[in-house]
Design brief:
There is one protein chain. It contains six helices and six strands. The radius of gyration is 15 Å and the shape is globular. Helix 2 packs across helix 3. Strands 2-1-3-4-5-6 form a six-stranded parallel β-sheet, sandwiched between helices. It is α/β, with parallel strands linked by helices. Helix content is 36%, strand content 16%. It has one domain: Alpha/Beta hydrolase fold, catalytic domain (Rossmann fold), CATH 3.40.50.1820.
Length: 182
């Protein structure tokens, strides 16, 4: 698989330079799906942007989503006629968009899409994520048909979590790419 077909999907506000997604992008040549507005994410705009990028890929892509990017993947998959353009997805720290505090920050993303993804997926969640309980993360994994990996106490699994290059998750990504037929 070409590095340009591994698509990085940051969450709300994007992923800064110390975020593991940014580090993977620079280290491995993965491609970030840029959004028009990282501060005021509109679900329809984010879905359309993912669709646009996927239609430009020359082979099926693998999605690497963090936080709101996970909700973007589920919403896109529920509406797109082009889901065959995705081979697999690594989903990390989905926010519970039905919680009052999260809904206030991310209006328009509730209710979440709770339908099985038509491609292989693995979901990382931590036991102390401030934006999603472990129980809710398990519900997302089950609804989306994703294998869940418990990341222990890691907060929101972002730059503040001190993950650096997060080699454990990158190895899971490589296994997912290897074990999933094109």
């Amino acid at each position: 698989m070409k590095p340009c077909n591994v698509l990085i999907l940051p969450g709300w506000k994007g992923s800064g330079p110390e975020h593991w997604q940014s580090r993977w992008e620079h280290a491995y040549g993965y491609c970030r799906v840029e959004q028009h507005d990282w501060m005021r994410p509109l679900r329809g705009d984010w879905i359309a942007r993912l669709e646009e990028v996927l239609l430009s890929c020359d082979e099926p892509a693998v999605l690497v989503a963090h936080s709101l990017g996970c909700q973007q993947v589920a919403a896109w998959a529920a509406h797109s006629q082009n889901t065959r353009r995705v081979k697999a997805a690594l989903l990390v720290a989905p926010p519970d968009v039905e919680r009052d505090d999260v809904r206030a920050m991310l209006p328009g993303w509730s209710p979440p899409v709770l339908a099985a993804l038509p491609f292989a997926a693995r979901l990382y969640a931590s036991s102390d994520d401030p934006f999603c309980s472990s129980a809710r993360a398990r519900q997302y994994a089950q609804a989306w048909g994703a294998d869940m990996i418990d990341a222990g106490q890691g907060g929101h699994l972002n730059a503040e979590s001190g993950l650096g290059d997060w080699q454990e998750a990158h190895e899971q990504l490589r296994l997912l790419m290897r074990d999933t037929p094109a």
